[in-house]
Amino acid sequence: MRMKSVRRPAVRTATAALALALVVGASPAAMAWSPAQDPLTLPYDARRGVFSFAGGLERSLPAVVQVTTLGGGEGPTTGDGEPKPLSGGSGVIIDAAAGIIVTNHHVIEGGEKFTVDLTDGRLFDAELVGADKATDLAVLRISAPDLAQVEVVDSDTLRTGDLAFAVGYPLGLDQTLTMGVISGLNRSGLGDAVEDYIQTDAAVNSGNSGGPLLDSRGRLIGINTSILSGGGDLFGLGGGNDGIAFAVPARIMMYVVGRLRAEGEVRRGRIGATLGSLNARRARELGLGFVRGAVIEDVAPGSPADRAGLRRGDIITRIQNRPVANAGSVQAVIGVGEIGGSLSLTYLRDGRTLTTEVAPREPVADRVLAGSSEVAAFGAVFALAVDGSGVVVMSVQGGLTGGLVAGDRVLEVDGREITGLAGLAERLRDARSPVRVLVARGGETVTVRLEG
């Protein structure tokens, strides 16, 4: 996977700010800094006479932990039957009273036992509360006194160019802090199901996974998840840092953690639309002068998208009043939306801007899905014939054994005449398997049997 390189202005920006602070600042003693003071001055430690972010960050560092995942493993054993270390990573305590730690799904994946090392040298066994592969997040719990925790900030307030600090245990080292900037927001396309990443150039390497991304005041803005490396995979297991790392934003993290703590899993709704990202080629095909948005490639009959009036070819430009950059932007909002809740959509159709509300629902194993213009059932899609001659088969999934063929006109279902889509859906729902369907095909009638 390749992504466009991002210039890293952190050094130049810091240098310019430092020079400005020295010009406009007064004596060192007068430059002790707090967030409410002059934003043009850098945080200054008057006692030591140095500029430093330590005052805000040091409060959060004790909450950053090392996570070790143990499992059976393969190959020779010592015979003691104890799980062997499989992988390691980082984590961060977000609820000290309950001992709640957030890390990555890929850090704990395949583990039988988990241990957590604190910065004060204490070691604890941890319980897995739950994990969510779609966002690459997991929640552990330890029982321990005197724990520290981080303050969590609203990640929707972030801006490209903000300072960012990554903390973790990379490459076998003890706790390590690195600094960079937020290089971009709302990144997607890395292969996970729910993506809305923060991109940073703070140095992140193997072992940083699951550790926090902090702002300049030491507040949690995201969970470091992956890197884009020329020498390894997205998790940085085989390559070095190339200045492009990704973190799950705190907004998504808090939703997932809440669901895992309450239910042990994250149940997600679907809207029943297949989405593609608008790119230069599609924009030219559609005669558009922009390349930001999500194109609806298909809509399932009877789905929330169908009921909301969405059609193939519509271009979603905003969801929940958030701009849509690509298909990942839409999936990210749906992925952390309440099932049955309402999501506002703004979309383009034939040059007009329209709005609608769509309510995600859980996937259902319904063999008959009825929409306003199509019915999907038994691996086939039915629609009204263009000439008004009844209901015809529009398409059939490969491998369907019933014998339906695209172009068949449906005459009867279990001996009852079919004249419209509503009647077809009702008959198919009420029928017992196998269902006998009489169709007209090439000047003759054929009976097929549908099972499922």
Describe the structure.
By secondary structure, this protein is α+β, with helices and mostly antiparallel strands. The protein has 4 domains: 10-52, no CATH class; 63-72 and 82-266, Beta Barrel (Thrombin, subunit H); 273-358, Pdz3 Domain; 375-450, PDZ domain (Pdz3 Domain). 15% of the residues lie in helices and 35% in strands. The strands form 5 sheets. Strands 21, 22, 23, 24, 25, 26, 27 and 28 form an 8-stranded antiparallel beta sheet that branches. A hairpin with a 7-residue loop joins strand 9 and strand 10 (176-187). Mean pLDDT is 81; it is low at 1-33 and 232-238.
List the helices and strands and how they pair.
Blueprint: H1 10-24, E1 44-45, E2 50-51, H2 54-57, E3 64-71, E4 84-95, E5 100-103, H3 105-108, E6 113-117, E7 123-132, E8 137-141, E9 163-168, E10 176-187, E11 197-200, E12 212-214, E13 220-227, E14 245-249, H4 250-263, E15 273-277, H5 280-286, E16 294-299, H6 304-307, E17 315-319, E18 322-323, H7 327-335, E19 343-349, E20 352-358, E21 368-370, E22 374-377, E23 380-384, E24 391-396, E25 409-413, E26 416-417, H8 421-430, E27 435-441, E28 444-450
Antiparallel strand pairs: 1-2, 3-4, 3-6, 4-5, 5-8, 6-7, 7-8, 9-10, 9-12, 10-11, 11-14, 12-13, 13-14, 15-16, 16-17, 17-18, 17-19, 19-20, 21-22, 22-23, 23-24, 24-25, 25-26, 25-27, 27-28
